[in-house]
Amino acid sequence: MLKIGQIALAGGMWNGMEVVPAEWVKRAMTALVAIDRGRSYGYHWYIGDVTVGAPPRALHWVGGIGWGGQRLFAFPALDLVVAMNCSNYRKSGVEQNRVNGVVLTEVVLPSFV
Predict the structure, then answer these.
(1) At 6, is the pLDDT very low, low, confident or very high (cuts 50, 70, 90)?
(2) Which residues make Cβ contacts (< 8 Å) with residue 16, sequence separation at least 6?
(3) How far apart are CA 45 and CA 28, in angstroms?
(4) Average pLDDT, whole number, for the chain?
(5) Quick one: which of 51, 50, 40, 45 has its CA closest to 26?
(6) Which of 79, 82, 45 is nearest to 63 (CA)?
(7) SS3 string of the chain?
(8) How far apart, in Å, are the Cα atoms of 94 and each of 21, 53, 67, 84, 90?
(9) pLDDT, average across residues 58-73
């Protein structure tokens, strides 16, 4: 199965074959527009950093953010992709981000840092 997060981490490659050009992946993962909460946006991907662990460690991520809590995060330093599927459609965007943030920083990422 083709996994977009893994392709991004592998520089556009999948099973030894180029799926998208490496230069395009590099540009897609580069911030073009600064937005809220320290996040940036570029080529349909959100880009930011999250702090996790003790002592605190900043981890760079690139990801897709959809309504209802649907998230896809790629953490290049960890060679890790995290997909989150929720059904928080009736919650505000702030609440959706809070729920996903807690699961990511307090449950998932501590297992990898």
Answers:
(1) low
(2) none
(3) 7
(4) 84
(5) 45
(6) 45
(7) CCCHHHHHHCCCEECCEECCCHHHHHHHCCCCEECCCCCEEECCEEEEEEEECCCCEEEEEEEEECCCCCEEEEEHHHCEEEEECCCCCCCCHHHHHHHHHHHHHHHHHHHCC
(8) 35, 23, 11, 16, 12
(9) 89
Give 69-111 pLDDT, tens digit per residue.
889 999 988 989 999 988 878 888 788 788 888 899 999 999 9
Q: Which fold has domain 4-111?
A: Beta-lactamase (3.40.710)
Predicted pLDDT at 5: 64
Distances (CA, A) of 53 to 47, 85, 106: 20, 24, 8
